[in-house]
Amino acid sequence: MCIRIQTEKIEKKILSEYAQLSNNTKGRLKDEEKCDIRTEYQRDRDRIIYSKAFRRLKHKTQVFLSPEGDHYRTRLTHTLEVSQIGRTIARSLRLNEDLAEAIALGHDLGHTPFGHAGEYALNEICPHGFKHYEQSLRVVDFLEKKGGLNLTSEVRDGILNHTGDNLASTLEGQIIKYADRIAYINHDIEDAIRGKVISDKDLPRGCVKVLGSKSSERINYMIKNIITNSKNKNFIKMSDDFLEATMELRKFMFDNVYYGSKSKEEVKAQKLIKELYCFLKEDVQYINGELKEMVDYVDIDRLVCDYIAGMTDRYAINKFKEIYIPVP
């Protein structure tokens, strides 16, 4: 008997009736022979971890552009924190931890350089618009390995629906929507306080009263609240007071940190993205790598958007220098 089948039998025995079992997947876009060792969701996790898009996350901004300190989050450390929170909740509810982990690790693969500033700039200038969750799905379906990673339907669904109004079809996917918010709200507060953009005293008092005064305290309470309100149920939810406080704290961060800080560096980043977009659209010879091979058969706006979205912060800056700064 192969190890994968043994693992699938263990899943069926110990997981909740509401869990998404690995052997019940709806499958992949292209049929493949199954692995003897790993379940389908374990394979998806591994494919994401070994992808180039995942490695690039370490040099992509989470909130603060090119911070001098070593302790600010990057898009990669954010992803790892989401994975940890998602796995904790999934295990506590006896749901499929491997599925939750795979969705978490892939949820931000399509994020732009320069964080929210980059996403905002691409959404403004690209006629197709830009949403990072749609781009993340495009990365795993099309851009990685010249044709995609061929992930399972449930992981793809969780990546696409990890934010916004849509709801993932699995409880594991719904967990990651909460895990993402819990992670970025709390670690971005820490980084914003470290960067002296806000202080503890600025946080809404009502939110602090409900959720806690420290990031570690808030994360613990929020996770416990989700587990308590979702245990043995066919849905994932927070209590009304916790959800209200969470969304108020999220709004505070958008108003005062993500879009409301009016950082000069964010303005520069947006201008850089737009300048690159306009130039590359007119002169595709500056597009490098695998995307260069697609110039003749992919819509030019789509191609340039893919190229810029895949850049790290430093690659975008160096590309700008290559194009606009004269070399002696």
What can you see in these coordinates?
- The protein is an all-alpha fold and 328 residues long.
- The protein has helices spanning 3-14, 40-49, 52-56, 75-92, 97-106, 115-125, 132-143, 153-160, 171-194, 205-211, 215-230, 240-258, 264-282, 300-309, 313-324.
- The chain has two domains: 44-263, Hypothetical protein af1432 (Orthogonal Bundle), CATH 1.10.3210; 265-324, no CATH class.
- It contains 15 helices and no strands.
- The radius of gyration is 21 Å and the shape is flat.
- The N and C termini lie far apart (66 Å).
* Major beta sheet summary: none
Amount of helix: 55-70%
Radius of gyration: 21 Å
CATH topology of the largest domain: Hypothetical protein af1432
Which CATH class of the largest domain applies here? Mainly Alpha
Helix/strand/pairing category: mainly alpha
Average residue-wise pLDDT: 94
Total number of β-strand segments?
Answer: 0
CATH architecture of the largest domain: Orthogonal Bundle
Domains counted in the coordinates: how many? 2
